[in-house]
Amino acid sequence: MTSIFDDIRHAFTRGSNAVTQLILINVIVFVSLILVRTISFLTGFSSVYDLITLNLGMPAHILRFLFKPWTIITYFFTHEQFLHIIFNMLNLYWFGQLIREYLGNKKLVSLYMLGGLAGGLLYLLFYNLIPYFEHRAAFSIMIGASASVLAIIVAAATLLPDYTFNLILLGPVRIKYIAAFLVVLSISGAVGDNAGGNIAHLGGAVIGFIFIKQLQRGTDLGKPIHAVNDFFQGLFSGRPRMKATFNRTNATGAAAAGTASRPNQSEIDLILDKISASGYESLTKEEKQKLFRASQK
């Protein structure tokens, strides 16, 4: 048991794989809820579990949400059903690895967070502005990482539309078709029993597409997420901020060298186009190095 906790601790303190970290957070919350539910029901205090889930899930009614604004974040780390979390985590692993490999950890985390936020906002808008959904708003609560995960799926399909996965019974399938199928599935379910969840999926899908298109134009929509993440990492790491000083005689040369080492957006766009057309393995060693340096910005 100690080794499990050590592995989890190392994943966050020493690891640099954002896919693993996001999956671990979801799994830890899921297992914690299972334990709380089991203990609370066995001891006759089931209301404790209900209270916790009510404060993690995102309410549809705008007034209830205003009293629980944190739920627009906690909902996309919360699952109750085993199949729900398995499906989401498998997709997060498969498609998240692609985003991480080509764009880096920071942009993966940005996509996950922005997808969840966009899904939550669209959920609120639909349930409070469209008459068809208004009667459901009073008792609807949403949980699950599906909006965040679909943002990552659509982003991967926008970035690498012809990349293929080998699916059981189907064989090789381009990920643009997988993404399109999931989007159509969400549209078809927007008026069903899980209408709120499917609406949130669409919010995530839209932000995934926009994120990549804006990134290809040189705009990183994830900068606010990076800033918040860096702030909290610095806050909890306990490490003092480093202050750099420069020798005036060498400052100009060093700046020029630093600038030269970073590929510009037009170079990255050409590399991404080449990946879309011929796959990652078609890149030269120099192009792979440029892509890696760009992902660290």
* Cα-based radius of gyration, to the nearest Å: 21 Å
CATH hierarchy: architecture of one domain: Up-down Bundle
The CATH class of one domain: Mainly Alpha
CATH overall fold name of one domain: Rhomboid-like fold
Query: Shape from CA axes?
Result: globular
Physical arrangement of strands within the biggest beta sheet: 1-2
Series of secondary-structure elements, N-terminal to C-terminal? HHHEHHHHHEHEEHHHHHH
Judged by helices, strands and strand pairing, the structural class is mainly alpha
Task: Calculate the mean pLDDT score and round it.
Answer: 83
Counting DSSP E segments of at least 2 residues, the number of strands comes to 4
CATH superfamily of one domain: Rhomboid-like
Largest sheet: 2 strands, antiparallel
Helix content: over 70%
Terminal CA distance reads: 37 Å
Structure description:
The protein has helices at about 1-15, 20-40, 45-55, 60-65, 70-75, 80-105, 105-130, 130-135, 145-160, 175-190, 195-215, 225-235, 250-260, 265-280, 285-295, and strands at about 60, 140, 165, 170-175. A hairpin with a 3-residue loop joins β3 (about 165) and β4. It has about 300 residues and is mainly α. The strands form two sheets. Strands 1-2 form a two-stranded antiparallel sheet. Strands 3-4 form a two-stranded antiparallel sheet. The protein is globular. α2 (about 20-40) runs antiparallel to α3 and α10 packs antiparallel against α11 (about 195-215). It comes from Adhaeribacter soli.
